[in-house]
Design brief:
The protein is of the alpha/beta class and about 325 residues long. It has two domains: about 140 residues, Glycogen Phosphorylase B (Rossmann fold), CATH 3.40.50; about 160 residues, Rossmann fold (3-Layer(aba) Sandwich). The chain is built from twelve helices and twelve strands. Helix 2 links the parallel strand 3 and strand 4. Helix 2 packs parallel to helix 4. The longest helix is centred in the C-terminal third of the chain and has 16 residues. The radius of gyration is 20 Å and the shape is elongated.
């Protein structure tokens, strides 16, 4: 099939939408399809469209549905779609959802954000991650990593705030990896480094460097206010790195309701308690690590490829 894959993130971007689009392209090509990745629909005929982001790709979705009404349309529901734009921009977001023949979500609870009459379209496809090799966590201090762009949805400085509350004897250091979304976020991160000896911001770093972070870090923290299904979880699980996460649906839908490493979103005091326990209590730390290792099978490349193959067979009637 000839597939048009729409993502709002440009080719130069390292944002999650571009990363996901590139990975999906590779999966679809491996299944024998021809895939064009673009930020806009230019009116070309195609056998299928996959559009990342119901709101940001709304024009492309509407144009394709009008020009190629016989061709299937798959829309991927992102975190901002599910937890923001479906409320703030309901007309265009819901139009995209209703035009779609199938919907793709990245975690188990995503369908609950949709109108009831659209939930049957949802297919959950977990984001895969590549193994990073044997882990060699830091020993001279307790390395806590926060991986993701600095923007409001990610609540990126919450771990740094929690680190300020730790006991004096704690060896925890928080290392942040990700580009600042605005100059204000860069300024805030710089100020935090100057005033907080437990915090360091590394700015945006290449993917190969992030892979090494997963090999060496003692703990990954995902502090987000909203997520559509963060690739950080799958990457950490495949690497064998334990995770502490805010208790938002996007994380619970990946880690499971009974995961022991949650804290209430935006609560640095509760996060500090979990970090302190992870550092000092080896039983608790090993429990987090074991739970994450148990999740590995659902985040493999073969599992993601099989899920896409099944979805395409379903939507095309193969």
């Amino acid at each position: 099939m000839h597939i048009v894959l729409i993502t709002p993130a440009p080719p130069s971007s390292r944002a999650g939408n571009r990363t996901t689009a590139v990975r999906w392209r590779d999966v679809l090509v491996s299944l024998g399809h021809r895939v064009d990745v673009s930020t806009a629909y230019e009116g070309q005929n195609a056998d299928l469209m996959i559009a990342l982001h119901a709101w940001r790709s709304a024009d492309a979705i509407a144009s394709f549905a009008e020009r190629c009404p016989e061709s299937p349309l798959i829309v991927a529901i992102t975190g901002t779609d599910a937890y923001r734009f479906i409320h703030s921009h309901p007309e265009s977001t819901l139009r995209s959802i209703r035009l779609a023949d199938r919907l793709v979500g990245l975690h188990d609870l995503i369908a609950l954000t949709l109108p009831e009459d659209q939930r049957h379209k949802m297919h959950v496809i977990y984001q895969s991650a590549r193994p990073v090799g044997d882990r060699h966590p830091y020993r001279r201090y307790f390395h806590v990593s926060v991986i993701g762009h600095l923007r409001e949805e990610k609540d990126p400085l919450r771990p740094a705030m929690a680190a300020r509350l730790l006991p004096h004897a704690s060896r925890i250091q928080v290392h942040q990896y990700g580009k600042a979304h605005t100059p204000d976020w860069a300024e805030r991160a710089q100020h935090e480094m100057q005033s907080n000896p437990r915090y360091r911001w590394h700015d945006e770093v290449p993917r190969h460097a992030i892979r090494q972070v997963y090999r060496r870090t003692n703990l990954v923290v995902l502090p987000s206010r909203m997520e559509g299904g963060a690739n950080v979880v799958s990457e950490a699980a495949v690497a064998g790195a334990p995770v502490v996460a805010s208790d938002i649906p996007g994380s619970v839908g990946l880690l499971g309701e009974n995961y022991p490493g949650y804290y209430p979103v935006c609560d640095e005091y509760a996060l500090a308690e979990v970090l302190d326990r992870a550092e000092r209590d080896p039983v608790f730390y090993d429990m987090l690590a074991a739970h994450c290792r148990a999740l590995r099978p659902k985040f493999t490349e073969s599992a993601e490829r099989a899920a896409w193959e099944q979805l395409l067979d379903d939507v095309t009637g193969a």
